[in-house]
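[job 4471] stage=fold_predict status=RUNNING
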Amino acid sequence: MALSERIQKIRDFSCNIGCNPPENTYYFDLHHAARTKYAHLDRLDKIANCVADAFENQKIYIEDFDRLIGRVFFFNDKPIANPDPDFDHITLAKERILAEIEDYSDFMQLPQVVGDNHFHGHICWNWNTMLRLGTSGLKAQCELEIQRTQDEKRLQYYRNVITVLCALERWNDKHVDELKKRGMTELAAICEKVPKYPAETFHEAVQAFYMQYIAIMRENPGGGNSPGRLDYFLWPYLERDLKENRCTMEEARELIDELFIRINERIWPHDGWVETVVVGGTHANGGSAVNPLSYMMVESIMDLDIIHPAVYARIPEHAPEEWISFCAKYVTNGKNRAQLLSDKNIITALIKNGVSYQDAVDYYCGGCMEIGIQGKTNDYLFNAWHNMPKMVELAITGGKSLSDDVVISSYRSKGLEHYETFDSFYADFIKEVKRIIYMFFRAQDFYSEEAEKKRPAYLISSMLDDCITKGKTMHAGGTRYYDYGSTPIGLPDAADSLFAIKKAVFEEKICTAEELLCALRANFAGYETLQKKLLKLPKYGQGNPEADAMAHKYFRDVSDIYTTYENRFGGRGKIVIFTFLWSAEAGAGLGATASGKNAGVPVAHGVTPHSSAMTKGLTTAINSCTAIDFTGFNGGASTMWDLDPRIADEPTAKALFTAFFQQGGQIFQGNTTDVEELIQAQKNPENYPNLMVRVGGFSARFIYLSEPVQNEIIHRLRHTI
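[job 4471] inference complete, writing structure tokens
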């Protein structure tokens, strides 16, 4: 569908202002209010009032061509000379972690082993509650609870939620006043109604969504914060409008186009700031939830040719054939944007790991592909990545890094030469992996405890189940599910090395443990014969039953480590398997591997076999992969299947992802761009300003990626027939 003249004008305007955003004073105002007007208040009351103040002080931006009202800009912050420590939950948490968690500081010499990160975000809240009740309805819920309790902590929560909701109303009223001054009476009438009162029309629903959305992004910023099931919750409004002749599909499409442009505008320069819309999916009764907005949103993001938001397609168990064919078109013609998700397999994994069916059908992707439950989880869905092949390396050496000679003196497993059987080596290795990952999760408890005191996020916590019922913010234990997620990078590489150790050292006696260690330290210089033998050993993805069984056992053991962890609120660990930008970075931190690779080779994506291992064809690789028990992956497991453009047609794509899902796979994605085009873009970037590629769970403009990431994408295997 051709974009309307108005939408083209908005897109051009947004690209210009997105590249050069005006100065953002929100955080300056936040800290200034904390140091002055509200310095005398209790910390939580101070935070709520400062957030309210900063909301109201934001500059109003309205253009004459707007039909959605409200603009905010990130990444050009006014400097804060004297930040208030009451907003900093990170510093004290890190100090406590280093002081109180045994061996944590020792492992920080190799930060991507234990995971020295804390990426709050990747959350999706019940914004549909705002559409259904309005801020007035949410305030009424809080006022009713105030009458029911005498608990001071609960009372403080309700009062502070009301404070922030009132600020949102006042900020919205400033837009109404400006609209009236400009004579934009129709929009003024809509904004007078929403988000204060329930939405009735599609335009009102989209406006209510957008106003609360940008407010949430101010209060609780973070990569991966996502709209979630946008088509699902907006469709009833459009369906009613269509029946009552209040709106046409063309008018609805313009609103969706404008909404997507606005989301893109706010974070324009940052392709990795992934905010995901999931379309399609399943109703609570098990039926297909695919609706006309599902198609419209995919078509919109394809036609607009912008990065944000990411629009991914959920495929229900009994999907309409038209939807499956449409998804195949998205894979082949979507400029490497598509990511497809199997409802049956993801919902099954969620239920197995303690989520009710009624909740599981409302799963979303928090960023790249991180699986959470819309409106029912905290914002610790993804907090770090762990270099799993590096953990194998440390097990071989007894705690010494081959790439930089760093020694982890507190590493508890003996070096490979001290073991007489593979089983005893593997048992100690898994025990140490468990200790390291539990160490990371224990650190998240410290962040959570400090966030409870300094990051209450009252606005978003008013739209998370069951915060209002409990009278608690999400980090005080208010949410229904309180899990910690992280991603183990390079699982297939680690599995291949473990299998090589098993065969070469313990079973076929190709070399001794000492000889293997010497070869790895030398990066195989002088050990070329041994390297060739290691490379010839079977790998995961080649259809070899033993190699695949080793990989499946290892994947299962790692997922069990995650799902058996219990945090301070009884939540679980969530294993979130993807690679983002870290394939090359994880590889750069590796020495030579027991599987025969030289030092520095980028690692595999998600649970996809490594490009160098997929020597038996695409079908064999998919069969190896889908023999895994995906039900253990409660945070999602992605795969990357890059296709030679000569075979990347709709029938082929449809056959591939259909078979992949039928055999148990969860998430399907890949590139279809010709490698030569990527090489030319690397040489002459000025000629390819908007060439998009699938990186590792998200899409990005190729020319803005680092050279190591570009090279990793260029050198991936392109499957052909």
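[job 4471] summary: The chain is about 50% helix and 5% strand.
[job 4471] exit 0
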